[in-house]
């Protein structure tokens, strides 16, 4: 285990962004690929069944639904996969980096370090070399490419960036560290399906994974040009669960212990974060006192963390949003969740309509590795277009004492007219029974006679939890488990 907490040392995240590709695949795409290219198989039948119960509406992909690499008779080879990763994947990383740099008000010439991660490409030189070239960096920069860390890579990269920045602080030098995560999982679907069929072994990564590039800029606060933070990195914790190497591996064959191991290990990591920050406000002690940015590894992980840490879906609203609308993009997802959490429409789903000043972020990776960190939000930087008026207004935090005073019309974001614009709403979240805890709203672009109802956040999460329960029963019967 290693932890970091440094009172009085500035480690602000001054820009953060995610870039998803243009194409979104619903579960039927995978089903078509399996039926078209593979004979009857007990393992593939189980994969198809699980595919219906993940709770994911769409998975983002660089490939069209009928792309030849997915639908030709022979699966793509490693050279073809690498070429597509470079030509279609790297631009996602470049776009995310440019967005983060723009928000950070930082030019590429100010970057001192680059920390990158991927688990879906092993080219030499690494993809970071291509990103650096495309961004136009000409000055010498220290660069690190993390491999073998899987879904924990986003936070592992942030932790590495923090230590590099602190090294410059100790030398009295400015640091601007560009963190880049890129995962193109869709290129591996056919080879994974081949393995499932040939080895008659159920692997569920093909039902969860998607494509994304994400990036952030971490500063040490030194230099003539400083930017107000989006988040302040306060502390972090990294630990390995002993004797779990075989429970979570590259080949996405997972033991039934994974949800129990990962969720059970989160509490001691959280306690370590709290213990490293004695100056936290007294109102921030229990897990439910914080907002959470959890890597959306799968339905069982999300619901398992809720139960283990005594949270509500509202605490993890951005994680659910990313999971439902984009799937699990491995190392990139947790950074996408942190970026999404800042959006104005997410505030309306916060517990008690109160946005928390402090955020716990967590991700699990192979090993099994647990990465967590504590962040403080700067809501003055988190300005987003208001859903109702189009005005640029910063959300207010719980510490400002204003959330409980918001009137109903504001807190509901005029749901009678604006619900269709919020990506969290999904047709699968329709409620068929009344609930005293949640409200139903009618989507305005549907005919009144249809009375098609769409849920607010609590209902969407309830429907998602129902999916999680169904998936739990299904997976128990198949002797497999959900992913990290």
UniProtKB/TrEMBL annotation:
Stretch list, region Disordered: 383-412, 433-454
Keyword Hydrolase: no
Molecular function GO terms recorded: acyltransferase activity, transferring groups other than amino-acyl groups
The organism's taxonomic lineage, starting at the top: Eukaryota, Fungi, Dikarya, Ascomycota, Pezizomycotina
Protein family (similarity comment): Belongs to the thiolase-like superfamily. Chalcone/stilbene synthases family.
Family matches, as Gene3D superfamilies: 3.40.47.10
One of the GO biological process terms: polyketide biosynthetic process
Domain Chalcone/stilbene synthase C-terminal: 289-376
InterPro entries on file: Chalcone/stilbene_synt_C (IPR012328), Chalcone/stilbene_synt_N (IPR001099), Polyketide_synthase_type-III (IPR011141), Thiolase-like (IPR016039)
Membrane-spanning segments: none
Protein name: 2-pyrone synthase
Organism: Golovinomyces cichoracearum
Keywords, alphabetical: Acyltransferase, Transferase
Pfam families assigned: Chal_sti_synt_C (PF02797), Chal_sti_synt_N (PF00195)
Source superkingdom: Eukaryota
Range of residues in the leader sequence: none
Bias (Basic and acidic residues) ranges: 433-449
Domain Chalcone/stilbene synthase N-terminal stretches: 53-218
